[in-house]
Design goal:
Layout (H helix, E strand, L loop, with lengths): L1 H16 L27 H29 L3 H14 L6 H20 L8 H10 L9 H16 L6 H21 L11
Helix pairs in contact: 3-4, 3-7, 4-6, 4-7, 5-6, 6-7
Length: 197
């Protein structure tokens, strides 16, 4: 009986492992056809040159426009000082005398530095006026008296706490405008970098 069981088991296992017979023509598959990978198209040289040239022309145009627009936007020292005085006049009643006088004097000193190349903002009033009196060839020598009166009035308000009423503030602003107008029209602008020590 044991033998019969083993034979039966062998028979069943042989039946399970047996494969169905395959026809001879389907036994080995042939080679697959080659797959063509498309190559990227070569860039057209003329397109690249044309695009690069157009980009260069646009960049040059933008640069030239920027320079032209920047030149138009430059403000002369006269215009800048007059604009600063207009702002100061609009807020003259809100400022204390010291702050008002300080801003008025700084506006004129900055104008002198930009217009004539003199180191007015870095000097005390006495240093600047003494140097101006000793330099008879200075373009500001002819207007040094009104400038002296203006700067001394500002110094009194800044350092001696002299109060400035509305009329005095108006006179200071008028003197500053008169100085700017007189010097802007009478003297040529020096070359940049021409500062006197």
């Amino acid at each position: 009986m044991a033998l019969a069981g083993v034979a039966l088991l062998l028979c069943v296992s042989g039946h399970l492992s047996a494969q169905a017979p395959t026809p001879p023509d389907a036994d080995i598959r042939g080679p697959k056809p080659l797959v063509e990978i498309p190559r990227p198209a070569k860039p057209n040289t003329y397109i690249w040159l044309g695009g690069g040239g157009a980009a260069a022309v646009l960049a040059l145009g933008a640069f030239l426009w920027y320079r032209y627009a920047n030149r138009k936007r430059r403000v002369s020292p006269r215009e800048s000082a007059l604009a600063a005085l207009a702002v100061l006049e609009a807020s003259r009643e809100a400022l204390v005398a010291e702050a008002f006088a300080n801003r008025a004097a700084q506006t004129i000193r900055q104008y002198i530095a930009e217009r004539f190349g003199l180191a007015a903002p870095r000097r005390t009033t006495e240093e600047f006026l003494n140097a101006l009196a000793n330099d008879t060839g200075s373009p500001l020598h002819a207007v040094s008296d009104p400038l002296r009166v203006f700067l001394k009035s500002c110094d009194l308000a800044k350092f001696a706490a002299v109060p400035l009423d509305g009329g005095q503030r108006g006179e200071l602003l008028q003197a500053a405008r008169g100085f700017i107008t007189a010097t802007a029209a009478a003297v040529d602008v020096p070359k940049p970098g021409a500062t006197t020590p």
